[in-house]
Specification:
This protein starts with 18 loop residues before the first strand and ends in a 9-residue tail after the last helix. The radius of gyration is 26 Å and the shape is globular. It is α+β, with helices and mostly antiparallel strands. Helix content is 30%, strand content 25%. The longest helix has 22 residues. Strand 10 and strand 11 form a beta hairpin. The strands form 6 sheets. A 10-stranded mixed β-sheet has the order 1-2-10-11-12-13-20-17-16-15, covered by helices on one side. It has a 6-stranded mixed β-sheet with strand order 9-8-7-14-19-18. The chain folds into 2 domains: 286 residues, Distorted Sandwich (Beta-galactosidase, Chain A, domain 5); 222 residues, Alpha/alpha barrel (Glycosyltransferase), CATH 1.50.10.10. The chain is built from 17 helices and 30 strands. The relative contact order is 0.11.
Length: 685
């Protein structure tokens, strides 16, 4: 097959490259949005890159764009400086000046100057690909570090409010301690389990904010109206210890007194969102995996703070691995893309166990189709995401697809092809609705790909053995229906239902070849290659000269064929080198101003499928695809968490390079398609 892992000159940018704007150094670039606390579909806080220059007064945002109140204020020699999120500054306070903003795979760090001292705010969302306890803990860290400097008296304050619960009209809060750790919990009143607000925030469960004194600090706390609580700290450098009842303008607040010091000092806060009953899986409540060890919320957050050093050490290793993997696969530009993608992917899934038994032998994972339609365990979303899991945590593929197989094995599902998803609205995995989307060839191929990806990466055959009858059924469906697909939806449902879709036929061909490799039945491998021969060699799915693939047999326009990717990843050789050579030659000729569109009739592209295709081509075409994606995330035109659909040409009120839709989706795992060609299961911790 024609592809290369060689570094291209266009991507040979030093890994320490930084851009400078607004008197701030952004490293490695200024992204559309920085992840702040991104650990689950309901703990997902961000700040747009274009708002970092005014970090002191700009609020964090939930992935949907609504504001989350989360503030940090510091006093230096009696003068209060707003460091982060203080939209209405208390009288007498000043704004800190941001000098540097960086992101890595797991950290977003901002350096600010406040009077004579400098602080760093490190927003650290652990990603622990194989440690389910650490990965499932629904908390994120904020560490405020006072860097060494002139001796000064310093205090650090932080607060949150009920915006984190999704409902600001009727909430309650409580404060408790465990040893030296102080823990606030805020929850809505009277909300139904498994309910969300219009922004996709959970209305049940509780927001958590906690801290403990460091070796060099003392802790004070308070709750009450935000203005009075903040003014108390601004005026006194400490909080009263009074815990007033919840009010709509109220905050819960934690303050550290670091004393008078010239040394470096740090304090760490834990922010989270806890739901005891987290997922409804076919009527049985699931809960976070961590609850097998820490069933009490306070115990869980205490452990989370205890675990900081180990979690930080793991994050350092993972940050380096992603940097090195990206660079060795393509270059520094590619590393920038991967590093910005990881938290968004793992922040879209939850690792669970049954709430009644807390039995870790029944571990499952659930993924939310964030911002597109909110489905749960959408099979094509798992397919779009799987390259990152193939590289870092292939067991997650099994944990995500096994609940789909479980549902398809019940009497509630009677179709001969694979299901699209197992619930229309996360977190309700209660079954595919009767009026839900059907993607027969798409999903039948995807479950085969995902099963084989897990098996190829781990060497384990338990998934294919357990569900062998279903897998054969879906392979047979592809054989009977895949070469001339009936009018139906594909993964890109925005295109509508189309008959004889070339990309679906490609999926059927590669799916059959994959099933042959999975099952050891060579007749399926032969059938897949025969399909591919008709599509390519006999020009069933191409133009007459074989220069490109068509969206439908015999019908323009051309289409970005991304379903070739498993053929290369699994070394199946269903399609010949000539097919890949042709696409490599063709796509640069149809590139629009900001990238290659999904097909010749539309003005937008998707980073998912551009990434899959980048893994199937070499030379200048790969250069173009990676460069376009890097330019898209660094062009300064966008503010949402990494949207995977964007305009590649001017369109009405939008310009080329602007985000189109699909903000914060976990499908960015597709960006690892190129890295996955170098090997699976590379994370050993």
């Amino acid at each position: 097959m024609l592809w290369s892992h060689g570094l291209k000159a266009i991507a040979l940018v030093a890994s320490c490259w930084a851009s400078t704007s607004d008197a701030i150094t952004y490293s490695p670039l200024k992204p559309p949005s920085y992840p702040l606390a991104v650990r689950s579909p309901y703990l997902s806080a961000w700040i747009p890159g274009n708002e970092v220059a005014s970090l002191s007064s700009n609020n964090a945002q939930f992935w949907a764009g609504n504001k989350l109140i989360w503030s940090v204020i510091a006093r230096v020699d009696g003068v209060a400086y707003n460091l982060f999120g203080v939209a209405s500054p208390p009288s007498g306070t000043q704004s800190a000046t941001v000098t540097e903003a960086t992101y890595t795979t797991t950290h977003s760090t901002f350096t600010v100057t406040a009077g004579s001292r400098e602080f760093t705010l490190d927003f650290f969302s652990p990603v622990s690909p194989k440690n389910y306890l650490r990965q499932s803990l629904p908390f994120s860290y904020l560490t405020v570090t006072l860097t060494a400097g002139d001796s000064a008296s310093v205090q650090v304050y932080s607060d949150i409010d009920s915006s984190w619960t999704g409902q600001t009209s009727d909430s309650s809060w409580s404060y408790s301690t465990s040893g030296s750790t102080g823990v606030f919990q805020i929850e809505t009143v009277g909300a139904a389990t498994y309910s969300q607000n219009s922004n996709g925030q959970a209305l049940w469960g509780s927001a958590v904010y906690a801290t403990r004194p460091s070796n060099s600090s003392s802790l004070s706390t308070a709750s009450g109206p935000s203005l009075s609580v903040r003014e108390s700290f601004v005026n006194n450098g400490s909080l009263t210890g009074n815990h007033a009842n919840w009010s709509s303008t109220g905050v819960v607040a934690l303050a550290h007194d670091l004393g008078t010091t010239a040394d470096e000092s740090a304090v760490t806060f834990a922010i989270g969102h806890v739901r005891e009953e987290s997922i409804n899986f076919l009527g049985d409540a699931q809960t976070g995996y961590y609850r097998a060890t820490y069933s009490d919320t306070v115990d869980a957050v205490v452990h989370f703070l205890d675990d900081y050093d180990d979690a930080y050490a793991e994050s350092t290793q993972l940050d380096k691995l992603i940097q090195d993997t990206g660079t060795s696969s393509y270059g520094a530009n590619y590393s920038d893309i991967l590093a910005l993608s990881v938290r968004q992917v793992y922040g879209g899934i939850e690792v669970t166990i049954p709430n009644d038994s807390l039995d870790t032998s029944e571990t499952r994972a659930f993924i939310k189709e964030i911002s597109s339609d909110g489905n749960i365990n959408t099979v094509d979303v798992i397919y779009a995401t799987f390259p990152i899991f193939y590289v870092l945590s292939p067991e997650i593929i099994k944990l995500l697809i096994a609940p789909v197989f479980e549902y398809m094995g019940t009497s509630a599902y009677t179709k001969s092809y694979a299901v699209h998803e197992i619930g229309a609205n996360y977190p309700n995995a209660t079954g595919h609705p009767s009026d839900g989307e059907e993607m027969p060839i798409e999903e039948s191929g995807n479950v085969i790909f995902l099963t084989y990806a897990y098996q190829a990466a781990t060497g384990n055959t338990d998934l294919s053995t357990t569900y062998s009858a279903q897998l054969k059924q879906y392979a047979d469906y592809l054989y009977q229906n895949g070469l001339y697909p009936a009018s139906q939806l594909s993964l890109n449902d925005a295109l509508g239902a189309l008959g004889n879709q070339t990309n679906l036929a490609v999926k059927a061909a590669v799916g059959l070849a994959t099933y042959g490799a999975l099952s050891g039945q060579s007749n399926y491998t032969t059938a897949g290659k025969e399909f591919a021969d008709k599509i390519w060699t006999d020009r069933l799915g191409t133009d007459a000269d074989g220069t490109h693939f068509l969206i439908q047999y015999g019908t323009d326009p051309w289409f970005l064929v991304y379903n070739h990717y498993p053929d290369l990843l699994f070394s199946l050789n269903a399609f010949p080198d000539e097919a890949y050579n042709a696409t490599a030659d063709f796509y640069p000729t149809v590139r629009s101003a900001a990238g290659v569109p999904l097909d010749g009739a539309i003005g937008w592209g998707q980073t998912n499928w551009q990434s899959f295709v980048a893994a199937t081509v070499s030379g200048d075409t790969r250069d173009i695809l990676i460069s376009d994606l890097h330019t898209y995330i660094s062009n300064g035109l966008n503010s949402a968490p990494f949207c995977d659909r964007y305009w590649v040409e001017d369109s009405g009120s939008y310009v080329a390079g602007q985000e189109n839709s699909f903000r914060a989706r976990p499908t960015l795992g597709s960006h690892f398609a190129l890295a996955a060609l170098s090997g699976a299961n590379i994370w050993s911790s």
